What we know:
Helices cover 32% and strands 26% of the residues. By secondary structure, the chain is of the alpha/beta class. It is globular.
Amino acid sequence: MTNPLARVKVERGGRLILDGTPVTLAQLRKALLALKKSKGRVRYYREGSRSEVSRATLRIWTAVMDAGLPIELCEDAA
């Protein structure tokens, strides 16, 4: 059985997308907490990953890391 997967995408402008739907940082945290209970994992993608990180992007990354889930970093859209 495959563990659940959350696809997290951070757009260049800082907009946060979770599984194809725009969400707030609070909604992301809540979803990641539920995902942890089901032993899920995260696929993370950030547009412009070779450019400098914004404060908003850093807060999103911190939330993902704090969730304590396995994370797969992607070079193409999650």
